[in-house]
Structure formats: C-alpha cells, structure tokens
Amino acid sequence: MDYLRWNMKKDAVDRLTPMGVMVLALLREGDMHPYEMVRLMRARHDDRLITITNGTLYHTVSRLHRAGLIEELGIDREGNRPERTTYTLADAGRDAVVAWVRRELPRIDRPADFRIALAEAHNLERDETVDLLRARRSALVEDHARHRDGLRGAREKSVPEQVLVEIERQEALLHAELRWLDSLLDRLEAQAVPWGPTAFPNSDRYRAQRKAAQQ
Q1: Does residue 75 contact residue 85 with C-beta atoms inside 8 Å?
Q2: pLDDT digits (tens, 9 = 90+) for 51-96
Q3: Among 185, 214, 206, 208, CA closest to 29
C-alpha cells in the first residue's frame, strides 16, 4: 500500500506542467477562483516564465481537479458577473508541488523548468533549498569545466572562431550562473533572506494585490 501511494504521488508529479505547478503554488497562498489566479499571475509578471492565457489556465485547473490535486469549495455569482468556482489545495496537490520543485531545482538539463522551480523554491524550507542548490552547483561546475576545457582545446587546435561562438556563450553563461548561485547560497546560509513557506508577511501590499485580483 505504501508503494501504491508512492507510485500515485510520483505519477502526479510527472504529469504536472509548469502552469500546473504555478496554480498549485498559488493555492498554497489561499483559496482562489481561476479568474483571480490569472490576474495575480499577470500582476506578478509570471508571463516572464510561462505563456498565460485564460484558456490554458482554465484547462489546467480542470485537469488538476480531475487528478484530485485541488478541490472545489463552491460556486458564487455577484451581480452580472459569470459564476466563479473557488478551489482549494488538496493534500495531494500540496505534496505534488513541493515534490516537483525538489526534483527540478538541482537539474541543469531543463532550464525552463528550473526557472519555475526557482520561482517556487520558497515553498521549501531553507536547509533543503540550500542542499538542492548545492547539488545543482556541483553539476554546473562540471558542465562549466567541460565547456571551458573544450573551448581551450578547440582554440589550441586552431578551430575557426566563428564555429565556437555558441560554446563561448554557454561557457560565459555557466560562469555567470555559478557566481550568482554562490551569492544566493551565501545569503541563504547567512539567513540574510527571509525564506520558507511561512516567511511571507501578510502585508498591506499583498492584501491589496489579492483584493484587486478578486474584482
């Protein structure tokens, strides 16, 4: 039975899309209807990370509901507005988003998914985030060394420079990411950055943002 539960959980994580992860992460903040989700994502400029359309989000919400990761709380209608179904996060959904972030944060082979995982990494506790980012750092060091050494070797063999520009760019990006990652790890370990799922203050700005998205 334990294996069955683990397998079902793994399947739920494997089927999650980046949009699904972000919807589940939003519901960790509180119960919402899809209209509020769309408005919050746009207000927070999450379209930097994923393409946000009403159709995609509503389809994602429907899939998450069928998968048992979110649950309906009720349907309401105010004035001439269309009916809005409010959703809450199921325990399975809470587990799935955390498991997805854990899986993607240390990986270096899926940069688009890493950006989502990094944006939602505050759903993990500080120590776990540090451990996962240190695992990522080790993989980046190896990848950076491979590009650096390959570039050096190619130039020693007089490989034409014009065919090396992509390798040169990737080596520079890896070097820059390692510098940034070291800075982030230093700040996390020094506790210079508030962190964790309960670290967000219920500020006036946050309450105003939620209220505006509900209108």
Answers
A1: yes
A2: 999 999 999 999 999 999 999 998 886 656 678 899 999 999 999 9
A3: 206
